[in-house]
């Protein structure tokens, strides 16, 4: 690509999302940079939504008579050491549930699926979306990765859906997206278990497309793009064929969001205490300062174990 083209990111919080252009690989990187607890708060969701609008504009400006200048890939990653994303904003959820604030929950969840739907569809163009997972991808963070056409993960990355352990389920695309990668029964089992899975385990199941050595994730993304360069039309055709055979519809995602909101509003006090426990665990491990030099590399954040379920809910 001969000339830098900049994503405006007009509504993005500079400490939450950084857009980087990789012209050598015809890619734009959306790098999540969390300030404090690395969850999908409304600031980063709004930043992602604004960036997506600008990336979609760039895609529409692709000139196929100059293929080397076209934008071909978007890569979603995180700059937070050891974490891709811990998922939904539990503090936001708890506040809305206590107030029985249906519109707040609906707004959050709809914002999420708007973002995931654009990613899953490649912005309605031939853009290939890639997730690079380096660390933990839980709940909504796992859903964000699943919305991408390709998932690259470093070997120490971990994935899971803890929601069922506190009476919820992942309602922003988890089952819809997983069931299009693996057998629906296996997708259901992964979600129901609440377990944490390694990158290698999910690669063997077909959830993840490529596993890289720790520290080599960016190189693996570059290698993948380079390998596709001379076979791009074939890969693009395959992605379009897969979308025709098993499309993800916005109506499906929206219907599941409605079920998720209803489920959240019916949570028991015991389940809310479990959610509070997980939120407290996250808060204890993360400094809320925006000065990244003061934030130590986090230890892995455990999903609630069955023992914790028994003790906290009692």
Explain what this protein looks like in three dimensions.
The chain has 314 residues and is an alpha/beta fold. It has a single domain, classed as Alpha-Beta Complex (2-enoyl-CoA Hydratase, Chain A, domain 1), CATH 3.90.226.10. 46% of the residues lie in helices and 14% in strands. It contains twelve helices and ten strands. Helix 3 (102-120) runs antiparallel to helix 10. The N and C termini lie far apart (60 Å).
The CATH architecture assignment turns out to be Alpha-Beta Complex
Total beta strands: 10
**SS-based class:** alpha/beta
How many helical elements? 12
Characterize the largest beta sheet: strand count, sense, and whether it forms a barrel. Answer: 6 strands, mixed
**What is the CATH topology descriptor?**
2-enoyl-CoA Hydratase, Chain A, domain 1
Helix content bin: 40-55%
N-to-C order of helices and strands: EEHEEHHEEHEEHHEHEHHHHH
Oligomer: single chain
Number of domains: 1
Q: State the end-to-end CA separation.
A: 60 Å
CATH class: Alpha Beta
Overall morphology: globular
Q: How would the blueprint of this fold be written?
A:
Blueprint: E1 17-22, E2 27-32, H1 42-60, E3 73-78, E4 83-85, H2 90-98, H3 102-120, E5 128-133, E6 136-138, H4 140-146, E7 150-154, E8 158-160, H5 174-178, H6 184-193, E9 196-198, H7 199-205, E10 210-212, H8 217-228, H9 232-245, H10 250-265, H11 269-285, H12 306-313
Parallel strand pairs: 2-3, 3-5, 4-6, 5-7, 6-8, 7-10
Antiparallel strand pairs: 1-2, 8-9
